[in-house]
Fold:
Amino acid sequence: MRIVLYGGSFNPPHRGHVAAAQSVYEALHPDRFLIMPTNIPPHKVMEENSPSPQTRLEFTRLAFGDIPGAEISDMEILREGKSYTADTVAVLREKYPKAELCIVMGTDMFLSFRTWYRWEYLASECNLAVLSRDEDDGPEIAALRERLEKDCGAKVKRIPHEPLPMSSTEIREKLRRGEGSELLPEAVYRRILQTGSYGAKPELTWLRAQVRPYLKPKRLPHVEGVEAMAVGLAERWGEDSHTAAEAGILHDITKALSPEKQLKLCKKYGIILDIAERETPALLHARTGAALSRELFGIPDEIYGAIRWHTTGRPAMSRLEKIIYLADYVEPTRDFEGVEALRKLCFEDLDAAMELGLRMSAEEIRARGAEPFRDTLEAYAYYRNLNSHKEEESSC
Ligand SMILES: [Fe+2]
Ligand SMILES: [Fe+2]
Structure:
């Protein structure tokens, strides 16, 4: 029986790791192919805010799901402490005394092999599978291979592999900047966002594509308009434009759902509705949209609030909440009397724009013979009061 061990910190596991595992599988056809995230890697320091070993284990399960025969092993994570391959091999050797054990490593790791903890033991118990490009297979590797084979009886097998140009360090940096989706298996990328790992922000092109199936085609120009307007306002008022874009893209994600489906989602997410909300299903998409966005994309509280309050407003809104409320109201495809004046005011005085927008919204609802929402009236009273105080202060 041939047992192949492919270990790593997988922080996070990326497409380069998966391609390497594919090459290993094709070259060695293992009977058991153990993919093993380390608990604490002996050779490098993990970044302080790295996800827990259990979360990396979950990412690893998601990453290697398509590799034939791959088994994701939690052996090193359960053992805790530093993850020395020699300890793992000792356990495997005891369990499988006659198996051929084979450790996978890249060229760099192979060249530093003699610094590994109990490397002589490893070389005597295991064969080494070295992933390397043709041009890497130079005299240095040949000399080490010969030495290990002669002194320890290890078999060193070269696995031809053209590594994908990426590293976990570089990917973590990209994730923080809202980039890097193409470097990760889709399921891993999604889970990273959901778990809020690495301070990752979703890539906006990826997020737009994710949200599109939820939207009716006729709503698309509106959502694009809200995103553009939100970014414009964020830049004007010193808000993070990536965050504003995210909130704009997501704000109407559940708008197309029927009242029945909205109520179902409210139940699922434990959203308690008051009487006005029960009677006005159009309001529910703000609440369900915030909750669904959190479940699908792990949005932070500030974006949750911006989606939650985008239909009614509320007193004392955050800057992002105001930006999304107003962007929703005056984005470029909106066309109603007074929209241009309000649009202009949004860039001059955000609180004054809130007061005017809330008043116009309440008047519009009254004109339809309905009663404005309580939150809208309270928000209007709040901003009217706030603005009159500001006026008094400035005239003193
Ligand atoms: Fe909406
Ligand atoms: Fe909207």
Remarks:
- The chain has two domains: 2-165, 218-395.
- The CA atoms of residues 316 and 382 lie 7 Å apart.
- The chain has a mean pLDDT of 94.
- The longest helix spans residues 374-395.
